[in-house]
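Page 37, continued from 36.
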């Protein structure tokens, strides 16, 4: 038997390179790609995991002040720690603050008499977040004419109920109606959950679908204006209307912000801060009606987390970022941006050393309010806009009929407008949106956090517009 040399054996085992036809050439494995500030490696799987958790059963809608939001906040804090961000207070990423919150629990609406109707929450009516708690029976109502809303002074109303278009139901106008003697206001229009920080004391407020308003007044006599009365006319309901709203006003509800930071690397510029923030809260179940918010799945918070993951990694191997980055996930967006307001009242970094605030996924109609809030503190705002939405803001998902009550109307499953979009499809769309926002946020931070000049006006305007426009 021929002897094999040690070199031949090692060659055939692939432990050394071979020369000749006896062994194949040794292939040196390529180094796996590494994420760099010039070419970050975004992870769709990470973003998908965030969105699945934000919209899963454990968080139950992520309403501010709820146990579900606390669960979502714990998840964000755990991921920040995993990514290597520094906690803002000893070892804690979460900070509690207090905000007024009006919690609407349930509501019923119906008519009294031999042909009683029970209206269906989420289909025919929905209580408003500014409603106080209580119950009333109302025989008639004031139909709000155009000039009534513009009146400078409001005399006593001829009825305790008011029907008016939803767009006129501003908080200031509701307070004027209550002062004039109103006990209930029905805002006629599309039903949409509207959380609020506090109720209008002594006033029940409900949104009413147009078809339900028609049924309440159908068959009623014509104007029942009192003799010599000037101003709005009083109209009787078809049958006396009963409205009940159950709520609880919390003057100081506990809410959470979640924050972690990446220290700057420059010896001088590290004293300056860039605040990068996004909202995590949602409406959640409202007055017992489940809701789905296709436009508010948490894509902004997911984009923030993915960017934070990248910058925590960059800080280990590069000189990026030069300025300190504070990544903040706020609650209270539907209570007048209460989380941001609380941070500005007690900032973790002196505001005179805060270079800018970057808001990820801010709803464009809310930009003027947030910008005005920051202007009061002399802070510039950069907006990383969410891609343009064609989906509805909120979809109501009433699950079942009230027990042993006749229902006025139920959604028709054959009607495509009644079928909510599939959550799995929405999440995949949210992954795409979040990755695009993360890329835009990264390009902005490369300038703001690296000691470079502010964005040129053309680039800043492009980032403010929804991606794809």
């Amino acid at each position: 038997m021929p002897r094999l040399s040690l070199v031949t054996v090692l060659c055939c085992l692939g432990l050394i390179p071979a020369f000749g036809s006896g062994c194949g050439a040794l292939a040196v494995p390529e180094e796996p790609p590494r994420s760099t500030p010039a070419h970050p490696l975004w992870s769709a799987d990470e973003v998908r995991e965030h969105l699945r958790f934000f919209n899963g059963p454990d968080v139950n809608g992520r309403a501010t002040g709820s146990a579900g939001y606390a669960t979502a906040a714990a998840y964000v804090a755990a991921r920040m720690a995993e990514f290597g961000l520094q906690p803002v207070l000893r070892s804690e990423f979460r900070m509690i603050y207090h905000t007024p919150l009006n919690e609407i629990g349930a509501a019923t609406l119906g008519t009294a008499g031999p042909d009683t109707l029970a209206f269906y929450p989420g289909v025919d009516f929905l209580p408003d977040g500014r409603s106080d708690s209580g119950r009333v029976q109302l025989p008639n109502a004031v139909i709000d004419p155009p000039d009534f809303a513009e009146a400078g002074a409001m005399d006593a109303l001829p009825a305790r109920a008011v029907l008016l278009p939803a767009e006129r139901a501003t908080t200031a106008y509701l307070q004027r109606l209550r002062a004039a003697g109103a006990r209930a206001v029905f805002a006629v229009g599309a039903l949409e959950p509207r959380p609020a920080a506090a109720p209008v004391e002594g006033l029940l407020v409900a949104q009413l679908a147009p078809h339900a308003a028609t049924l309440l007044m159908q068959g009623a006599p014509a104007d029942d204006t009192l003799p010599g009365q000037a101003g709005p006319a009083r109209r009787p309901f078809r049958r006396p209307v009963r409205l009940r709203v159950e709520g609880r006003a919390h003057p100081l509800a506990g809410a959470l912000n979640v924050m972690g930071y990446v220290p700057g690397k420059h010896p001088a510029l590290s004293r300056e801060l860039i605040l990068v923030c996004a909202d995590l809260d949602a409406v959640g179940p409202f007055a017992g009606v489940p809701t789905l918010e296709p436009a508010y799945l948490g894509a902004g918070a997911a984009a923030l987390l993915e960017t934070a993951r990248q910058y925590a990694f960059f800080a280990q191997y590069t000189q990026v970022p030069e300025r300190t980055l504070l990544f903040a996930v706020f609650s209270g967006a539907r209570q007048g941006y209460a989380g941001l307001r609380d941070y500005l009242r007690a900032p973790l970094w002196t505001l005179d050393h805060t270079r800018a605030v970057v808001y990820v996924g801010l709803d464009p109609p809310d930009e003027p309010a947030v910008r005005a809030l920051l202007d009061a503190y002399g802070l510039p705002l950069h907006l990383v806009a969410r891609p343009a939405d064609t989906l509805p803001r909120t979809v109501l998902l009433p699950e079942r009929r009230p027990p042993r009550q006749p229902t006025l109307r139920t959604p028709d499953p054959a009607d495509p407008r009644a079928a909510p979009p599939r959550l799995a499809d929405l999440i995949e769309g949210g992954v795409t949106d979040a990755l695009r926002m993360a890329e835009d946020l990264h390009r902005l931070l490369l300038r703001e956090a690296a000691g470079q000049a502010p964005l040129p006006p053309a680039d800043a305007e492009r980032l403010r517009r929804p991606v794809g426009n």
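Residues 423-448 form the longest helix (26 residues). Flag for discussion at group meeting. The mean pLDDT is 84.
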